[in-house]
Amino acid sequence: MDDCCRVEKEDRDFGAEPLSLWWQDRALLPSAVSGVFLLAGYVVEWAGVPVAPVVFQGIALAAGAWAFVPGVMRALCNRRVGVALLMTVAAVGAVALGHVGEAAALAFLFSLAETLEDRAMGRAQAGLRALLALIPDIARVSRGGVEQTIAAKELAVDDLLIVGAGERLATDGVVEAGQSVLDTSAVTGGVDPCGCFSRSSGGSGVDQCWRRDTSRSS
Questions:
Q1: Interval 19-43 mean pLDDT
Q2: Where are the chain's structural domains?
Q3: Cβ atoms of residues 137 and 27 within 8 Å
Q4: How far are the Cα atoms of 91, 183, 189 from residue 9, in angstroms, in the given order?
Q5: How far is CA 62 from CA 45, 58, 194, in A?
Q6: What pLDDT, in 10s, does the model give residues 148-193?
Q7: How far apart are alpha carbons 161 and 134 in whole angstroms?
Q8: How far apart are CA 200 and CA 49, in angstroms?
């Protein structure tokens, strides 16, 4: 029974949708353009080139603002305010005071922060989708001494699940009979499998009996 529920690491497929590489992410394009023109504006201003640095800074401001100002307008239409509105007001105030470079720097930094936050959220959501994909749609249970195959959503508290070698657990619970090794790395992040042993005899049958935990409602 040592091979029960074991999944080889090299054969695992969590079904996650891979995110695009950062240099292929079009959402980063406005921030990249803003950063390039902002830097160009500072270089022109430092080198004394006879080109108004405000031109480059204005382009940088427009590119950076493109990443969050449309969202601010939509939020205002829905009567919602947020930190993006504060950044927009700050940028407008800086331009009104003649500090276009500062407004451009603000737009660049905030647009980059917003884009990176969105990417981090996307990674978290992909991880959750991959974890949910591991839950099987059906489960084998023993009810009244009769083995049945039911939909996982029909499981009830105190159901006795029968888990065979290589099968995945449809719910949490406690081991009632048998012994096995479970690969819990998708949940815990650990690399070593977790041993699961019965609290009774600890026999080595083909299947493992797994009772849904009565102390939890889900």
A1: 84
A2: 22-132, 136-212
A3: no
A4: 50, 9, 12
A5: 19, 6, 54
A6: 888 888 888 888 888 877 777 777 777 777 776 777 676 666 656 5
A7: 17
A8: 83
* Euclidean distance between CA atoms 45 and 73, whole angstroms: 33
Confirm whether pTM is higher than 0.70.
no
Res 18: pLDDT: 56
CATH no., domain 136-212: 2.70.150.10
Q: Which residue has the tokens 């891979």?
A: 18
Place of tokens 């829905």: 78
C-alpha span between 143 and 162 (Å, rounded):
11
119 contacts 25 by C-beta, under 8 angstroms: yes
Per-residue pLDDT reduced to its tens digit, 75-98? 999 988 889 999 999 999 999 999
Residue 210: strand pairing partners:
161, 175
* Torsion region of 42: left, alpha or beta (phi above 0 gives left; psi -120 to 50 gives alpha): alpha
In whole angstroms, give the CA distance from residue 184 to residue 156: 23
CA distances, 196 to each of 23, 136, 166, 178, 199 (Å): 44, 19, 14, 8, 9
Residues 107 and 61 sit within 8 Å (Cβ to Cβ): yes
